[in-house]
Amino acid sequence: MNSRTINSDYLRQAIKLIMKLPNEICTPAWLQTLQLIAQPTKFLETCAAKYGDIFTVRVLGFNSPPLVFFSHPQAISDCFAIPAKQLDFQQATHVFKPLFGESSIVFQDERSHNRQRQLLMPPFHGDRLKNYGQLICEITKNATKNWITGTKISMQKIMPDITLEIILQVIFGINSGVHDQRLNRYLSSLLEDITKPLYSSLFFFPPLQQDFGTWSPWGDFQRRREQIDNLIYAEISARRWQNNAVGTNILSLLMSARDENGQQMTDKELRDQLISLLLLGYETTASVLTWAFYLIHSHPDVKNQLMQELNVLGDTTNPEEIARLPYLNAVCQETLRIYPIALICTPRMVKETVEIIGNKFTSGTVLVPCIYLAHRRFETYPEPQNYQPKRFIQQKFSPYEYLPFGGGYRGCIGAAFSMYEMKLVLATLLTQFQLILADKCPVYPVRRGITIVPSGGVPMIVTKKSAE
User: Fold this and answer.
1) Residues of the chain scoring pLDDT < 50
2) pLDDT tens digits, one per residue of 372-413
3) Distance CA 237, CA 263 (A)
4) Fold category of 3-465 in CATH
5) Are strands 67-70 and 54-57 parallel, antiparallel or unpaired?
6) Is 334 within 8 Å of 362 (Cβ atoms)?
7) Would you say the C-alpha torsion 137, 462, 430, 399 has a positive or negative sign?
8) With contact defined as beta carbons under 8 Å apart, do 396 and 141 qualify?
9) Rounded CA gap, 340 and 445, in Å?
10) How far is the C-alpha of 190 from the C-alpha of 164, rounded, in Å?
11) How far apart are CA 288 and CA 106, in angstroms?
12) Distance CA 129, CA 416 (A)
């Protein structure tokens, strides 16, 4: 190594030290991580109240890189405009790799990400989406067929049952048999534990990821993941052997898809994409639906207007007519504004210096567009804490002001499917049953895995069935 190289390295390090990160929180990284894990919305709100639209934290485990959070629309626009070649998505999201798998689209950069996105997008959009409407409604009805007047149910328990069954049938294309029951049981058990703060903390602290056998938390996780993987690979193998890649379920469509070079996804790619779709679409959609039932029934004016719109349809069960209802759409949009699918967009680590609203960020800095805070800026949303679906009928917001599924070239591929699913589940239950909140006490957001759910589970009472 010559002196010029040494001087160049020294200069780069010196520049990093001189370029102060904006509004950096001074508490220890481990404490910031615990605060974010325990009370993420409170942590973000506290930081925003103190520092405004931009602040820096360190919450990705030991030796954490700086994470700079943005909520101003222009800053988010600048983030989305940065060319992919200047960013590293693997380093910024590595904590989820044990869950999703290294072939997941979440961790791919540039060319590989584009290839997988082109293969994954078609089943979730256009006419293909319509194939799932009736099935979603039937699954919802079947899950609630035993409800009778006086039944007390917890929305936080029933919604995951519905969304998991939708995923198993729509994405995996399976709905019966011992094999499928085992997959359902294994997935339900693992997903339930992942939503617990103590268990999910394992992914943020690598030193805790030690396999000391089934009695150790990490050893238990690895063996349960292996059980699920064995069933998924068996399903893929059976489909390939039977040449069953012509169905309408998403697994079949992905198995028949070809990239621009005529190549199919490998078994490993299929497994990782399926698990990613499962983890990103199961608990997230269930939590938003739980919030929707709480918010609708705690705002009588919203419920009355929504029921008037739904009643106009009469006995129709056409999913496409339901999905086009404007106020139902606004209710879903406003629910996603207050409690979006995810609190943040995909983090992105800077490879070379970039500039965002006048601030320069050097290599190693992680940029985090914050959905939760962007949706609560009073400059964009008057009375942002209030639930007002009408705002989405009166005004159209930019993709940098309203982004419940992220945005740019890393936006969620299942956004359209998730919205479609929400509308159909809500409409099906609201027209089948009359419900009231069992507990009139206000709720507050609590962490459940990677999602935010209402405290108390939203217990509700069935006061009448539509057939009565």
Assistant:
1) 1, 3-7, 9-18
2) 999 999 999 999 999 999 999 999 999 999 999 998 888 888
3) 17
4) Cytochrome p450 (1.10.630)
5) antiparallel
6) no
7) negative
8) no
9) 12
10) 12
11) 21
12) 8
Residues 6+ apart with CB under 8 A from 320: 130, 133
Q: For residues 194 and 99, is the Cβ–Cβ distance under 8 A? A: yes
Q: How many CA atoms lie within 13 A of 407 on its CB side?
A: 23
Q: Are 266 and 433 in contact, with CB atoms under 8 Å apart?
A: no
CA 117, CA 95: separation in Å to the nearest integer? Answer: 21
Q: Against a cut of 0.85, is the pTM above it?
A: yes
Residue 245 token pair: 């890649």
Radius of gyration of the chain (CA): 23
Which tokens sit at 168?
């198993």
Contact 275, 260 (CB under 8 A): no
Residue pair 109/372 in contact (Cβ under 8 Å)? The answer is no
d(CA 54, CA 67) in angstroms, rounded, equals 10
Cα separation, 416 vs 264, in Å, equals 24
Beta strands in 13-140 (DSSP E): 54-57, 67-70, 87-88
* 3-state DSSP helix/strand/coil % of the chain, to nearest 5: 55, 10, 35
Torsion of CA 423, 424, 427, 430, to 10 degrees: -110
Q: Which two tokens stand for residue 326?
A: 């404007």
